[in-house]
Amino acid sequence: MRDMVEGIVLAALSLIAIWGAWQVPPAGSGDTWAGIVPFAASVALLVLSGFLVLGGMRTAHSGDGATTNSGSDTLDILILFAVALLYQQSFRWFGYVLPTAVVAPVVLNIFGIRNRIGLAASVVICPLIFHVIFFELLGVFPPYGEVFDLLDWFRG
Amino acid sequence: MEIFPALATVITDPTLLFAIVLASAVGMVVGATPGLTASAAIAMLLPITFYMSPLFALAFLYVIGKSGRYGGSVAAILFNTPGTAASAATQIDGYPLARAGKAGKAMKVATISSVIGDLMGDVMLVVGVGFIAAIALKLGPPETFAIYFAAFVVIGSVIGKSITKGLASALLGILVAMIGLDPISSEERFTFGSFELSNGIGLVPLMIGVFVLGEVFAQLEERQKSKDAIKENVTDPEGHSLSFDEYKPCIPHAVRGGFIGAGIGVLPGLGSAIAAFISYGEGKRRARNPEQWGNGALEGVAAPEAANNAVSGPSMAPLLTLGIPGSTIGAILLGVFLIHGIQVGPTLFLTDKELVYQLFACGMLGILAYGLIGFFGATQVARLILKVPTSVLYPLIFLTAFVAAYSARGSMFDVTVMTVAGFAGWLMRKFEFNVAAFVISFVLAKGAEETFRQALLMSDGGALIFVERPIAAAFILIGLAAMGFRIRSIMKERRIAEGGHGDA
């Protein structure tokens, strides 16, 4: 059953890719079409997804397709992914320091740290250490927060 | 003989020596930490190398890769958890030795064998790479594309359990690499009107996402399972020392393992895990005491460890001479070359020959460095690893992934790419797709496309040019044959599992 679902997802992806490759304009005279490799790869992916679906159907018939599902683990991952998406987006809004100060204890908590002093310390220590290493020592220009930037506030 | 002046240059440069020793220690710790891989560490450190000289950056990451391969044996022997896939073969005899109070002895055998194998691989690389580069210079676009094709098929079909998923992973890597402007005609491909996508997907954020953030997601999932207490090993004061008489029976196994590893290392995609298991199987077949293998034979540690590490040097040959990385570490190193504006391929030996041989020299000194650190300090490293709580380590790695992805180009889009790649990398692991095939294909895709289209332009008969030219046809056949053999072996395994006759 799992193979079948994977095959269907891959088939959907390959159809999108075939459509995307088809949008590439035709080549000029004496040139090769820029979409030839994307198109060929997409079609090959569609064929492979067909094999996966067929394999899944065969497994479903023989009844070997039992899979274990750990719902709570997957939920943890989805929460962490949501945190990751929000974290990277918040760089654009609030710069580096403030989002890191907020996210550090959240992620530590997700990984099982419950010590309140430790979590509180991470609010200061994590942004400070990363800021010093990357934006002071390595000289990378920090992302600028469009809404509010704590770094600007610190620098007056 | 270019290696001798290169060695002299490296030995007389204190900053390079410092980088080599530091990288040996870092690689060993990373390799020995279950769940952390040398690939993840190299990907994470990649943006920092922007600020280093090319040789310093390459040497630092190359030695981490070498040392990380060796470090995997520490976790395999002490914790029964291989730090790398290649160390799983070491675990078979290493852990029983540790349980019997001979952990120190087993780790010393692993260290010496790793050094022997790795040095053998590097010597073969130094001797052979010039010849391969000279041949590679004579290859035209059809032959080069055929080599790329063989690499795609071998990498997609040989690594991992499922050929279909392996090849699908390779195709996904090719499709992601096609996003952006076509380098020949400047037509947009898969950009869907997005300006940011027209610049393509960056190698560094993709690597950090797949290897670092993806690994953090995977570790969060594994957290519950890994809570099992590590069994306390018996302590035997005699079990830490190793005499020459004890190591003597291991020497033929280590040397054979070195040859096996070096031979497999030249072939892209096969990797050190396959080399280690082949060497273990071959060693057991030829052993005087096969009944002891699996229950704590020192030779059973020497054979896979030598092969595992011997892969490291020769795997650089296809990367440097053809631009085809044979492993994920090779793919990341290719990124470092490109970041520093160095074109990898046969012309590298005309334009940057000194750099290449100095890199080999750094690798050889790195082997000696991790050998010394491992021989005298592997037990201390293991104790250090046990003290680092993973519940703190992985959140820190999570935070580092974001700032590292941003630092590469100061681009917020790269951070988004890294985040999405991280989740995709986790999904691929979870559903047993082949992450290594995905990344290596991503790296290879542009070169393969270029040679494919060049070959079509110079051909009158279209795609027939790949069949008409004998070398090209031979490589295409090699790729197809590798896939055929793999299909055959999978079907054989399946028949055995179903209780049929394996040889049917």
Describe this structure in words.
The complex is a heterodimer of chains A (156) and B (504). Chain A is flat and about 60 Å long. Chain A has 156 residues and is an all-alpha fold. Chain A folds into two domains: 2-62; 72-154, no CATH class. The termini of chain A are far apart. Helix content of chain A is 72%, strand content 0%. Helices cover 73% and strands 1% of the residues of chain B. Chain B has 23 helices and two strands. In chain B, strands 1-2 form a two-stranded antiparallel ribbon. Chain B is globular, with a radius of gyration of 22 Å. The interface between A and B is large, with 59 and 57 residues.
Task: List the main descriptive attributes of the protein structure presented here.
A: 156 residues; mainly alpha; 2 domains; 72% helix; flat; B: 504 residues; two-stranded antiparallel ribbon; 23 helices
Written as H for each helix and E for each strand, in order along the chain, the element string of chain A is HHHHHH
Percent in helix of chain B: over 70%
The main sheet of chain A comes to: none
| Largest interface: pair, residues per side | A-B, 59 and 57 residues
Question: What fraction, in percent, of the residue positions of chain A are helical?
Answer: over 70%
Low-confidence stretches of chain B: none
Count of alpha/pi helices of chain B: 23
Q: Specify the overall morphology of chain A.
A: flat
Major β-sheet strand ordering of chain B? 1-2
